[in-house]
Write a structure and sequence with these properties.
about 140 residues; 3-stranded antiparallel sheet; binds zinc ion
Length: about 140
């Protein structure tokens, strides 16, 4: 498992990583990137409604780092929705507590420990599974 002083702890990989404004041609979307740690900051502060101190502890960072992170994230989301740009969640120096395995055949999702081996979808039995922690971790581009 990767570990460094800058690694941010993320509970689960994001289930949705790309958002597009309706009616804007793809070539004009000029995507905004939201890193996975920025996504997690918004999830903890604005969705789960945690205090910054508590959220910072979840991510294993200081409260001041958390506050800067969530402000940066809100700015990026605001830019995307005001300017009609697509929003892509990717990258960041992160470590996931658990992962989600999603069936490419039927869409069934299961949250499991990182090292848990999932051979088949519990919904349809397919072995064509996407590990969202792995695919989120491989998209490392930053804007
Ligand atoms: Zn399935």
């Amino acid at each position: 498992m990767r570990q460094s002083y800058r690694t941010r702890r993320i509970a689960l990989p994001p289930r949705y990583r790309e958002f597009r404004p309706r009616g804007v041609p793809a070539r004009n979307m000029n995507p905004v990137s939201l890193s996975v740690d920025e996504y997690e900051a918004v999830r903890l502060a604005d969705y789960a409604k945690l205090e910054h101190q508590e959220a910072a502890e979840c991510m294993h960072i200081s409260r001041s780092t958390f506050t800067r992170l969530v402000e940066k994230a809100r700015g990026r989301i605001a830019t995307a929705i005001i300017e009609g740009r697509s929003l892509i969640v990717r990258g960041g120096n992160v470590e996931f507590e658990r992962t989600i395995r999603r069936c490419r055949h039927c869409g069934e999702e299961e949250a499991v420990p990182i090292l848990h081996r999932t051979e088949h979808c519990r919904g349809c039995g397919s072995d064509d599974l996407e590990d969202l922690a792995e695919t989120a971790g491989t998209e490392t581009a930053r804007d």
